[in-house]
């Protein structure tokens, strides 16, 4: 998402922002790994550090009369974990009076928050009965007397940023199938892994001026690696680099289940059409084991030399 959104923007006056609601239950610990967010599998400090989010929105939903310190601890911690991106503090209108909500907003502002996100639109204070009193009129007069200017995103501006982004897909050569959990390394930067669709993204890549070039390497345990040299990256832009890995499986193991057996023979037989005739379909490119543009007895001979039955590792890679 962080790599795709900048590529979709067409209006520089209203750029899309990638944001997320961030868990902040309990008190803020000195180490993020001890936080409720981390224990809930939401490692948002790492998201911010990697630049995956343009703006974090920590849900600092606390009653000012019951947990004023917890609110302030989380505000301070969140702003300390923004890593050059934006942190917009969530304030629970529904848990507070107007005055207490104002106090929390003013604290967040004084701590350096980039914005405020109030919750909720319909329940705007913890006192009274519906219809709720007009928080918006109160806020306009007492909290936001002048229009707020949305903060810019200098990391998206080529004139101000010194970082670029690289993304792409790692697939198997020949079949085009995505490779899950492959490792991609850009120069000497920390490696990233591909997802189940073979996609990867590397953010905060140092660039400057007209850009920089990096060698990009994809690896997978047991597979031959591949490197693209001198991939160009431009500040504030997203570059695309797709990589293909050659399968380490025996070429006769068509279904890639780590053996060459009758299931593979069935695939060969379905594609068999004799010499000097093009394969019946693109899916028959793998049974063309000698790469001569047909599936014939020569390919059968190669296959037979590798045939070793079910549940036995292939013995050849012709």
Which of globular, elongated, flat, extended, rod-shaped describes the shape? elongated
Rg on CA atoms, Å: 28 Å
Main beta sheet strand tally, sense and closure? 4 strands, parallel
Content-based structural category: alpha/beta
Uncertain segments of ≥5 residues (pLDDT<50)?
A: none
Compact description:
Helices cover about 20% and strands about 20% of the residues.
How are the secondary structure elements laid out?
Elements: H1 4-8, E1 19-22, H2 36-39, H3 44-50, E2 55-60, H4 68-80, E3 86-92, H5 98-111, E4 115-119, H6 135-142, E5 163-172, E6 183-186, E7 192-193, E8 199-206, E9 212-219, E10 226-233, E11 238-240, E12 243-245, H7 262-271, H8 297-306
Parallel strand pairs: 1-2, 2-3, 3-4, 5-11, 5-12
Antiparallel strand pairs: 5-8, 6-7, 6-9, 9-10
Describe this structure in words.
The protein is an alpha/beta fold. The protein contains eight helices and twelve strands. The protein has a four-stranded parallel sheet, covered by helices on one side. β6 (183-186) and β7 (192-193) form a beta hairpin. The longest helix is centred in the first third of the chain and has 14 residues, at 98-111. It is elongated, with a radius of gyration of 28 Å.
């Amino acid at each position: 998402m962080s790599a795709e959104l900048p590529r979709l923007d067409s209006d520089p006056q209203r750029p899309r922002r990638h944001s997320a609601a961030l868990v902040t239950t309990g008190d803020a610990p000195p180490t993020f790994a001890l936080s409720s967010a981390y224990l809930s599998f939401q490692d948002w400090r790492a998201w911010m550090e990697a630049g995956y989010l343009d703006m974090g929105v920590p849900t600092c939903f606390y009653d000012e009369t019951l947990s004023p310190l917890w609110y302030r601890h989380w505000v301070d911690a969140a702003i300390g974990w923004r890593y050059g991106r934006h942190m917009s503090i969530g304030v629970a209108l529904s848990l507070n009076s107007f005055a207490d909500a104002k106090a929390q907003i003013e604290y967040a502002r004084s701590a350096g928050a980039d914005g405020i996100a109030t919750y909720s639109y319909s329940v705007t204070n913890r006192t009274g009965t519906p219809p709720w009193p007009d928080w918006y009129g109160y806020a306009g007069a007492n909290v936001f007397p002048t229009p707020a200017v949305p903060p810019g995103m200098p990391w998206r501006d080529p004139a101000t940023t010194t970082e670029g982004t690289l993304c792409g897909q790692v697939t198997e050569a020949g079949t085009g199938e995505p490779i899950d959990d492959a490792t991609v390394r850009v120069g000497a930067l920390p490696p990233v892994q591909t997802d189940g669709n073979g996609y990867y993204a590397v953010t905060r890549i140092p660039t400057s001026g007209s850009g920089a070039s990096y060698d990009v390497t994809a690896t997978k345990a047991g597979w031959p690696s591949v490197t693209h040299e001198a991939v160009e990256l431009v500040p504030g832009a997203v570059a695309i680099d797709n990589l293909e890995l050659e399968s380490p499986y025996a070429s006769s193991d068509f279904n890639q289940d780590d053996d060459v057996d009758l299931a593979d023979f069935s695939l060969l037989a379905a594609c068999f059409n004799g010499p000097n005739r093009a394969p019946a379909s693109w899916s028959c490119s793998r049974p063309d084991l000698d790469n001569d543009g047909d599936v014939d007895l020569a390919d059968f001979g190669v296959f037979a030399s590798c045939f070793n039955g079910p549940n036995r590792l292939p013995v050849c890679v012709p």
